[in-house]
Amino acid sequence: MAKGSTKPQAHYSEDFKVGALAMLRVNDNNITKTATQLGLPRVTLRAWAHRLSGITQAVEAKIPQHVKSLADRLDEIAHLCCDAIPGKIEKAALSQVSVSLAIAVDKMRLLRDQPTAITQDLTTEQRVEALKDLLDAARAQRVEAQRGVSQAVQSASPAPVN
After folding, report:
1. Torsion angle of alpha carbons 75, 80, 82, 83, nearest 10°?
2. HSE toward the beta carbon, residue 101, CA cutoff 13 A
3. In Å, how far are 9, 122, 130, 134 from 125, measured between CA atoms?
4. pLDDT (0 to 100) of residue 35
5. Vertex 130 angle, CA 79 and 95, to 5°
6. Is pLDDT of 146 > 60?
7. N or C: which end of the chain has fewer CB within 10 A?
């Protein structure tokens, strides 16, 4: 490239712009993080985010549906993680499944413009009480699951021969 010339300007599809702006929402409007993830110049993403250039009405119109679609997919992932956690409790990967669940729920809530932080102040006693309630509920679910396993084993056992 000759001295003084500039790099040719990249052209991005409408779908790429829609996805980039939706991802920006997932990343809580962190332009640097999103641009790095997408391999996109920060200045370009910033211009799109502030609607300074490159965003047509068609792109603008597609963003809400794309954001909803992402939120729905993250909701599905959160449910899959929730379903997987009981099976992982006795294995070492529980923390990984729990972190995945937390991230999916956090991102899903961001996309749905819901709070992602607890803003309610609780006393220590209220926190202890809430934890006890959760523990009691988890124990009740475990007992119920164990009953179901016991019943399944009993029904699968052959009848005694006389």
Report:
1. 140
2. 15
3. 60, 8, 9, 14
4. 96
5. 45
6. yes
7. C
pTM: 0.53
Residues 6+ apart with CB under 8 A from 9: none
CA angle, corner 156, sides to 152 and 158, nearest 5?
145
- Rounded Cα distance between 24 and 111, Å, is 10
Residues 128 and 122: their CA atoms lie apart, in Å, by 10
Segment 123-145 shows an average pLDDT of: 81
CB distance 23 to 34 below 8 Å: yes
pLDDT at residue 31 is higher than 90: yes
Give the domain ranges of the chain. 14-119, 120-152
The tokens of 83 are what? 């379903």
Angle at which helix 31-38 crosses helix 14-26, to 10 degrees, equals: 130
Main-chain dihedrals φ then ψ at residue 77, nearest 5 degrees: -65, -40
Q: State the Cα–Cα distance between residues 15 and 58, nearest whole angstrom.
A: 10
